[in-house]
C-alpha cells in the first residue's frame, strides 16, 4: 500500500457509489441489456473486458489526491473533499474516453480503449455519462458546505470543463498547422491539462474554508503543477521507456504530435533542417529510420535539455507558490513530496 491509497479510498468509494446509484435507478432492470455503467467500470479499472471484477491500472488518481492534500494543507478535513475529488476524477476520465476517439488511440494503460472494444458511438455515450456523473458527484458536498460555496464550486467546475475542451480544440487544430509557437502551445496546455489541476488545488482549499487570497495561491500552485506535469509528459512521449510509459519509445514522433519538444525544434531549426523534417513526416507512416533522424535533430538543437529545464523551472515555481499558500507542517510536506514525484516521474 502506498502512502496515497488511504487518502484516496474515500474518493474511490464515492465514485463507485455514484455510478452504482445511477445504474440502480436506470431505465432497465436487466444490466446485460444496458452495459453502460460496466463499460465505465472497465475504463476505471474495476472490471475486465468480460465485465468480471478486476483491479487493474485505472490511473494514478493524481488530481483527486491533489484536491484532498490541498484541503488538508489549507486546514480542512480531507474526507470532506472526497465528493469533489470523485467529481474531478470522473471529469478527467470523461475527457480521456473522448480524447481516445479523437486521437485514434487503441490502447490506454496497457489495455484496449473503450472505443476500440465497443465502437466510437458507444464510447461517446460512455464519456457523456461520465460527465453527467461528475456533476452528480460534485453535488455530494451540498450537505457539507454553504449554498454559496456549492454554487461557486459548480460554476468553477463547468468553467474548468470549458477550458479543457477549448484546449483540446486547439490541440486538434495544431495537427493541421505547419508550426505552432511556444506561447500558443502553453495556452493550449493551460486549458487542456493545467485547468483541472488548478481547479483541484483551488477546490480543495475552498472546502477547507480558505479566504480568496489564499484560494488564488492554491489555484496558481495547481496551475504550475499541471503545466510541469504536461511538459514532463511531453518529455516522456519522446524519451520515455516502453516498460515505464506503456507506449512505444518516441511515440509522439511517430504520431507527428506537436508537443513542446517538437514546437521548440520547429522554432529553432534552420530552413534546410526544416525541409528535412517535413520530408521525414511526409509519408503515411513515420519509419524507424525517420524517428532516429528526428531524435538526432532534437539532440543537435539541445531540445532535450531545454525541456528538462522548463520542467525544473515550473517545479520550482510550484514549490514557491505552495510555500505561500500553505502553512509549514505534514500536510504541506505531503504536497511537496507529491510535486517532487510528478516532476521526476518516468511513466
Automatic annotation (TrEMBL):
**Highest classification ranks of the organism:** Bacteria, Pseudomonadati, Thermomicrobiota, Thermomicrobia, Thermomicrobiales
Xref: InterPro entries: Isoprenoid_synthase_dom_sf (IPR008949), Polyprenyl_synt (IPR000092), Polyprenyl_synt_CS (IPR033749)
Which Pfam family, giving just one, matches this sequence? polyprenyl_synt
Entry's Gene Ontology BP terms: isoprenoid biosynthetic process
Q: Which GO terms describe its molecular function?
A: metal ion binding; prenyltransferase activity
Q: Which UniProt keywords apply?
A: Magnesium, Metal-binding, Transferase
Q: Which PROSITE patterns match?
A: POLYPRENYL_SYNTHASE_1 (PS00723), POLYPRENYL_SYNTHASE_2 (PS00444)
State the family it belongs to. Answer: Belongs to the FPP/GGPP synthase family.
Q: What is this protein called?
A: Polyprenyl synthetase family protein
